[in-house]
Design goal:
Elements: H1 8-20, H2 22-30, E1 41-46, E2 51-56, E3 59-60, H3 62-66, H4 68-74, E4 78-83, E5 92-95, H5 96-112, E6 120-124, H6 129-141, E7 144-147, H7 154-164, E8 168-172, E9 175-177, E10 180-182, H8 184-192, E11 200-204, E12 218-220, H9 221-225, E13 237-238, E14 242-248, E15 256-261, H10 262-277, E16 284-287, H11 294-306, E17 310-314, H12 325-333, E18 337-340, H13 342-350, H14 354-357, E19 366-370, H15 376-386, E20 393-396, E21 430-433, E22 445-451, E23 461-462, H16 466-474, E24 481-489, E25 495-500, E26 504-507, E27 510-513, H17 514-522, E28 527-537, E29 541-550, H18 559-573, E30 582-586, H19 599-606, H20 622-634
Parallel strand pairs: 4-17, 6-7, 6-8, 7-14, 8-11, 11-12, 16-17, 16-18, 18-19, 19-20, 29-30
Antiparallel strand pairs: 1-2, 3-13, 4-5, 9-10, 14-15, 15-23, 21-22, 22-24, 24-25, 26-27, 28-29
Helix pairs in contact: 1-2, 5-6, 7-8, 10-11, 13-15
The structure holds 5'-O-[(S)-ethoxy(hydroxy)phosphoryl]adenosine (WTA).
5'-O-[(S)-ethoxy(hydroxy)phosphoryl]adenosine is lined by residues 248, 293-295, 370-373, 395-400, 421, 483-485, 497, 499-500, 506, 511.
């Protein structure tokens, strides 16, 4: 493996090199890997169409790079350490050779079910080893995996299966989360009932709950694997062949199927993993994300395994059986790098220090955060109480669309500053623009964050809708990738992410489109229209505040009853993560004369700030604002 960055001057040197000679830089990184055929062209691109092609003509399989390439030295090394939900249950450790065996065997199972290169396979699973096995088995045969976080409702699951036209769904009977179980198979049955494309369901037994198995369609994972050979030759993929689809929320409409391809994603996820976390051989690395999100894809599975790391997968939640669970895991498995979300840190901080104080966590070397801005208080608590003042914190900024970390300290190399993602990684060229797209040069500037040139891990398209890809990311500013985030570059040239500047909110590190939540609320029979905004929330970062206009408010209903039923509705349409924290029933929304909702005003009201609304001259009916303010003061 190419050398890691070890010093600050080394970082600046690499960075300079990567910006001046980007293609040479990434070609050099790509040389670490096993290519069936080397590429003809490192990079071909324009942000107009947009067209982004890395390592064109190169042939490879990403699982050959995890397994065959490393098997000689890593055969007996732990690849995955699996920690179950209940600490009393025994965990599982899979060595590289054991994982390889299971991946090849399951790849053969998928082939036997008629799955071919390019077919889409949907995965809706709890955090069990079979989730990683299934995704790698898809990659092995060239099928495109689409993992859907198992907290989504059946409606949301169905939407995603239909969009990708998945042929096979892989799930479990149920899932454990803390002291609850989720009826995964029942949710899948409901969803699949609406999806014509699905031919086969493969179900891994986890909870032992009674589930219905439809003859000819549904099969038990373990039965399918019985007597199946583990001889499997990897499918040869083009560098630009799709690897996976992952749905994420945007500011408008339905979630988008972000598509990542094979060669560039492989190079980028592993390069960033090794450098940001400074992983050394023999270390145990633990990322607490769910594989249903991009963090789990890139930094539980692909990045670590491509780097020959031992990656820990945790099935449960941070507060079960108590708020010390993460630290128990760190102690039990002697974790060296720990990566989590600020919302988890804030939640654990609120539980008090006694859960962290007496844990033996000397093994920890690096702490990471991802998904949302981290406030200074949480940063210091993490640094002082978890890292005992010894461990650098890497505050990593990136997105589903970027495939890997973009702006982040390199652990132990980049001097950190609380709540700053600090400096761009090599190969990343961020620029800050004002609303008109004018570049704001130099330090001490604030504006919208864009990226000037492609990097290997970036998304290539939105599945089935390239025009939407262009519109969303490449049309706001010419020849730039627009992130949707606001940013400040301070006097030292350090980047601080300020949060989304579009209609996307970040709730407990989960991305949520306000339009998506509004659509779900509007399904309620009494709701005429609604507006959803984020508001500051001490644990979640942002909470969801919904203003709903209802009709037929007669004596048969109470406002409280409607509020409850709206919450249930959102739960059913999207999932618990989208359930509004607060709902206010109002008689109208503040609109401009042209009918646009003035969200700026609603955001202020949601934050409990009832003054200085700025320019309200375009407001159609100021009385509406008065009413909303009065009502929200009472509630
Ligand atoms: C936000 C998660 C501040 C940001 C990997 C981005 C962050 C969105 C950070 C992407 C960070 C992510 N500091 N904000 N370190 N990391 N974000 O697609 O608004 O789930 O646009 O990817 O999360 O969320 P996504």
């Amino acid at each position: 493996m190419a050398v890691k960055i070890k010093t600050l001057s080394g970082y600046f040197h690499e960075y300079q090199k990567s910006i001046v000679k980007t293609e040479d830089f990434w070609q050099q990184q790509a040389e670490d890997f096993y290519w069936r055929k080397k590429c003809d062209c490192v990079l071909d691109w324009n942000f107009k169409e947009p067209k982004i092609e890395w390592f064109k003509g190169g042939k490879l399989n990403i699982t050959e790079n995890i397994f065959e390439r490393q098997m000689f030295i890593r055969k007996d090394q732990a690849a995955i350490i699996w920690e179950p939900n209940d600490p009393k249950e025994e965990g599982v450790t899979l060595s590289y050779s054991e994982l390889f065996y299971k991946v090849k065997q399951f790849a053969n199972v998928l082939l036997s079910k008629g799955v071919k290169k390019g077919d889409r396979v949907a995965l809706y699973m709890p955090m069990i080893p079979e989730l990683a096995i299934a995704m790698l088995a898809c990659a092995r045969i060239g099928a495109i995996h689409s993992i859907i976080f198992a907290g989504f409702s059946s409606t949301a699951l169905a939407d995603r299966i239909i969009d990708a036209q998945a042929k096979v769904v892989i799930a479990s009977d149920g899932g454990f989360r803390g002291n609850k179980t989720t009826p995964i198979k029942t949710i899948v049955d409901e969803a699949v009932g609406k999806c014509d494309s699905v031919e086969t369901l493969i179900i891994k037994k986890r909870t032992g709950d009674q589930v219905l198995m439809k003859e000819g369609r549904d099969f038990w994972w373990d039965e399918l694997c019985e007597n199946v050979s583990a001889e499997n030759e990897a499918e040869v993929m083009d560098a630009e062949d799709p690897l996976f689809i992952l749905y994420t929320s945007g500011s408008t409409g339905q979630p988008k199927g972000v598509l990542h391809t094979t060669g560039g994603y492989m190079v980028y996820s592993s390069y960033t993993f090794r450098n940001v976390f400074q992983y050394s051989q023999g270390d145990v690395y633990f990322c607490s994300a769910d594989i249903g999100w991009i963090t789990g894809h890139s930094y539980i599975v692909y990045g670590p395994l491509l780097s020959g790391a031992t990656t820990l997968m945790f099935e449960g939640i941070p507060t079960f059986p108590d708020a010390g669970r993460f630290w128990d895991i760190v102690e039990k498995h002697q974790v060296n790098q720990f990566y989590t979300a600020p919302t988890a840190i804030r939640a654990l901080m609120a539980e008090g220090n006694e859960f962290v104080e007496n844990k033996k966590m000397k093994s920890l070397k690096v702490l990471g955060t991802v998904g949302e801005p981290i406030n200074e208080e949480a940063w210091h608590w993490y640094h002082d109480h978890v890292g005992k003042g010894r461990c650098p914190i890497v505050d990593t900024w990136w997105q589903t669309e970027t495939g890997g970390i973009m702006i982040s300290p390199i652990a132990g190399v980049t001097p950190t500053k609380p709540s700053y993602a600090t400096l761009p990684l090599p190969g990343i060229h961020p620029i800050i623009v004002d609303a008109e797209g004018k570049e704001l040069k130099g330090n001490s500037v604030e504006g919208n964050l864009c990226i000037k040139a492609p990097w290997p891990g970036m998304a290539r398209t939105i599945y089935g809708d390239h025009e939407r890809f262009r519109q969303t990311y490449f049309s706001t500013y010419q020849n730039l990738y627009f992130t949707g985030d606001g940013v400040r570059r301070d006097e030292d040239g350090y980047y601080r992410i300020l949060g989304r500047v579009d209609d996307v909110i970040n709730v407990s590190g989960h991305r949520m489109g306000t339009a998506e939540v509004e659509n779900a609320i509007n399904e309620h029979p009494r709701v005429v229209e609604s507006a959803v905004v984020g508001f500051p929330h001490h644990i979640k970062g942002q909470g969801i505040f919904a203003f709903a206009v209802c009709n037929d408010m007669d004596e048969t209903v109470t406002e409280e009853g409607i509020i409850q039923s709206i919450k249930v509705g959102v739960n059913n349409i999207i999932g618990p993560i989208a359930r509004p924290d607060k709902i206010l029933i109002v008689s109208g929304l503040p609109k401009t004369r042209s009918g646009k909702i003035m969200r700026r005003i609603l955001r202020k009201i949601a934050a409990g700030d009832f003054e200085n609304f700025g320019d309200t001259s375009t407001l159609l009916d100021p009385a509406v604002v008065e009413e909303i303010i009065n009502k929200s003061k009472i509630h």
